[in-house]
């Protein structure tokens, strides 16, 4: 055991021996406000309806919270006196006495118990935050008073500071400021008092680094990793009460499948993000995170609120395959006598056109318009040329040129020659022979195709 540990034990023994005396000196009941009466739980309470004696015609009525009280074993009404035997917590309320329908007495009765000795719990959320001490109890009410007693050493005098009471949450909260980097010890005790008594906790010696307990991490998020069926990405941020910069935190992440109480998988890290790589597909996971000072000073924070997430799932994996439309349906059996002639419903054609996309119809209309326009341009372009050629043929300005035709003389058996006979393709070609034609030399006109049809 080190020297500091030995000094800590000696100081603790001295505090234990001095605690009773300190408690008697600092503990006293609170003062009851005017119009309020405090009663100890289980004691007998007597209330008088005025100081005047009751006359024969006087009528006395007692009310609790504006409801008339009837005589009972615990509520005894004797002349102008109301006796409450063995008071209970439910007897707390506003009492009123009416004499001849005239209010004579109004008093608020509070039934309380002597407070139990509180158990002091202290911690700090960061090195720059004040020391926070608190105590929770169902006995706390608006008439309860909490006081924090503190001193830095055993030899110093005790100082006191009033604490704040939150009646809704039934908790006393005391804040004790300290300086940054201060490593000295502080001795503290909590005193709780009410109208019927008080109690003081044992003094405790604390060190700042021992009281350090951060708030849980915030903004914890979990999301799947794209195309990774076994991964989950988790991220979080520092708590707002922790001063980032010089001081840092380390984190612990725990995860398990949903509806599982045991968080067996725990990971310690300094970053504010982590990727789970061993998640099972199609399983919902629960993740939570806690924090602690990076050099292990103080205690772990509480766990963050759990978050839930599921790994990435391939959308094509569970897609139902389309039915094979070839062949007969699976539910029908082939039959030789069956008539499988298909009939097309009348509305089938309209359904096909109804399924035809609008942009396809638009494309078809534009294409048809372009073809018609191109044809019209071609007709207009060549129409003038065609008219010119037709007029030239019908004018007769130049006679048509004919191919030369050779006249053949045919001799009969007596040696006399007959008149030449015209053989040509057309009757117009049988005219006078050209001037340069010679009877002595045969002339073959290769251009005249009719020559080849003359019989030899």
Short description:
Helix content is 16%, strand content 29%. It has 456 residues and is α+β, with helices and mostly antiparallel strands.
Account of the 3D structure:
The chain is of the alpha+beta class. It folds into four domains: 3-29 and 115-211, Sandwich (Immunoglobulin-like), CATH 2.60.40.10; 42-112, Immunoglobulin-like (Sandwich); 218-309, Immunoglobulins (Immunoglobulin-like); 402-432 and 442-456, no CATH class. Helix content is 16%, strand content 29%. It contains four helices and 24 strands. The strands form six sheets. The protein has a five-stranded mixed beta sheet, with no helix packed on it. Strands 11, 12, 15, 16 and 17 form a five-stranded antiparallel beta sheet that branches. It is elongated, with a radius of gyration of 59 Å. The chain starts with a helix and ends in a 61-residue tail after the last helix. The model is unreliable at 1-25, 325-334, 338-351, 407-411, 413-420, 423-429 and 431-442 (pLDDT under 50).
């Amino acid at each position: 055991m080190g020297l500091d540990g030995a000094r800590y034990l000696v100081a603790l023994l001295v505090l234990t021996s001095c605690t009773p005396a300190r408690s008697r000196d600092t503990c006293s009941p609170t003062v009851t406000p005017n119009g309020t009466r405090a009663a100890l739980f289980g004691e007998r309470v007597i209330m008088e309806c005025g100081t005047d004696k009751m006359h024969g015609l006087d009528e006395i009525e007692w009310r609790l919270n504006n409801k008339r009280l009837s005589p009972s074993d615990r509520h005894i009404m004797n002349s102008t006196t109301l006796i409450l035997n063995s008071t209970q917590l439910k007897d707390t309320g506003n009492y009123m006495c009416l004499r001849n329908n005239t209010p004579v007495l109004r008093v608020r009765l509070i039934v309380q118990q002597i407070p139990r000795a509180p158990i002091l719990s202290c911690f700090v959320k960061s090195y720059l935050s004040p020391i926070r001490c608190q105590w929770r109890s169902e006995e706390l009410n608006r008439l309860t008073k909490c006081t924090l007693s503190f001193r830095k050493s055993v030899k110093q005098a005790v100082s006191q500071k009033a604490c704040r009471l939150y009646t809704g949450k039934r908790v006393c909260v005391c804040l004790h400021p300290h300086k940054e980097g201060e490593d000295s010890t502080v001795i503290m005790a909590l005193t709780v008092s009410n109208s019927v008594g008080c109690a003081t906790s044992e003094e405790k010696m604390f060190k700042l680094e021992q009281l350090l307990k951060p708030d849980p991490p915030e903004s914890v998020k979990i999301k799947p990793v794209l195309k990774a069926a076994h991964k989950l990405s988790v991220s979080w941020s520092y708590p707002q009460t922790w001063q980032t910069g010089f001081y840092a935190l380390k984190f612990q992440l725990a995860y398990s499948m949903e509806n599982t109480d045991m968080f067996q998988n725990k990971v310690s890290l300094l970053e504010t993000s982590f990727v789970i790589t061993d998640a099972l597909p199609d399983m919902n996971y629960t993740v939570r995170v806690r924090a602690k000072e990076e050099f292990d000073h103080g205690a772990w924070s509480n766990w963050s609120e759990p978050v839930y997430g599921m790994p990435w799932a391939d959308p094509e994996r569970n897609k139902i395959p389309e039915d094979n439309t070839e062949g007969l349906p699976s539910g029908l059996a082939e039959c030789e006598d069956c008539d499988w002639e298909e009939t097309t419903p009348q509305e089938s054609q309209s359904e096909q056109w109804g399924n035809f996309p609008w942009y396809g119809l638009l494309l078809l209309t534009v294409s048809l318009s372009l073809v018609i326009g191109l044809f019209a341009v071609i007709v207009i372009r060549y129409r003038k040329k065609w008219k010119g050629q037709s007029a030239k043929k019908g004018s007769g300005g130049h006679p048509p040129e004919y191919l030369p035709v050779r006249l053949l003389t045919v001799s009969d058996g007596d040696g006399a020659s007959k008149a030449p006979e015209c053989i040509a393709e057309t009757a117009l070609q049988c005219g006078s022979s050209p001037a340069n034609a010679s009877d002595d030399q045969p002339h073959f006109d290769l251009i005249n195709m009719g020559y080849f049809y003359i019989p030899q």
